[in-house]
Write a structure and sequence with these properties.
The protein is α+β, with helices and mostly antiparallel strands. The protein has 2 domains: about 15-55, no CATH class; about 65-185, Molybdopterin cofactor biosynthesis C (MoaC) domain (Alpha-Beta Plaits), CATH 3.30.70.640. It has 4 helices and 7 strands, in the order H-E-E-E-H-H-E-E-H-E-E. A hairpin with a 3-residue loop joins strand 4 and strand 5. The longest helix is centred in the middle third of the chain and has 19 residues, at about 95-110. The chain is elongated.
């Protein structure tokens, strides 16, 4: 049995083949030791051999950090009427989704392998209703050494999944879309919002 390599490109590949593969994989060049270098210098989630690692954040200062993310559940006007009247077969979809989103934010490092466990200070999950959609907006706050974008995305996504679960008896064709970070604050990269 051949020894396994940590290189993302097979060691038996000819140098020209390895360079072609590196370019196809979005990597810019082949290092002298035959391993590839990431397009973004200093990409901290990769070790020199190209394998993943959890970033060392121990030297970073604690700051207050916050992120807001959204997810949109598109359904029918009839389902929105049932939701508004509190007549969905499974009960209060938004109350269940809100709790699911809050729980999900706290579980993010168990779901996303390279996320750091963070002391979450606050999570809010809110809903904006339209004629045929529910926009979930989740905001997560911490005072820590790394941001909470993934926690906000996880909260919004799981809340949207929970909405889908609550309405699927009356709309199996509902769609979850537009999952994205809307804003973040704190940390070295500064504040921004869409």
């Amino acid at each position: 049995m051949a020894a396994m390599s940590n290189s993302p490109i097979p060691p038996e590949a000819a140098p020209d083949d390895r360079q072609t593969q590196a370019r196809a994989d979005g990597l810019t060049h082949l290092r002298a030791d035959g391993l590839t270098q990431s397009r973004a210098d200093g990409l901290t989630h990769l070790r020199a051999d190209g394998t993943a690692q959890m970033v060392d954040v121990s030297g970073k200062p604690e700051t207050t950090r916050q992120a807001t993310a959204q997810a949109v559940v598109t359904t029918t006007a009839a389902v929105m009427a049932l939701l508004g009247a509190g007549e969905l077969p499974k009960g209060d979809a938004l109350a269940v989704a809100r709790v699911a989103g809050i729980m999900a934010a706290k579980k993010t490092p168990e779901l996303i392998p390279l996320c750091h466990p963070l002391p979450i200070s606050k999570v809010t999950v809110d809903f904006e209703l339209s004629d045929s959609s529910i926009t979930v907006q989740a905001t997560v706050k911490t005072r820590s050494v790394t941001g909470v974008e993934m926690e906000a995305l996880t909260a919004a996504s799981v809340a949207a999944l929970s909405v889908y679960d609550m309405i699927k008896a009356v709309d199996k064709h509902a769609v979850i879309t537009d999952i994205r970070v809307l804003a973040k604050s704190g940390g070295k990269s500064g504040d921004w919002a869409l």
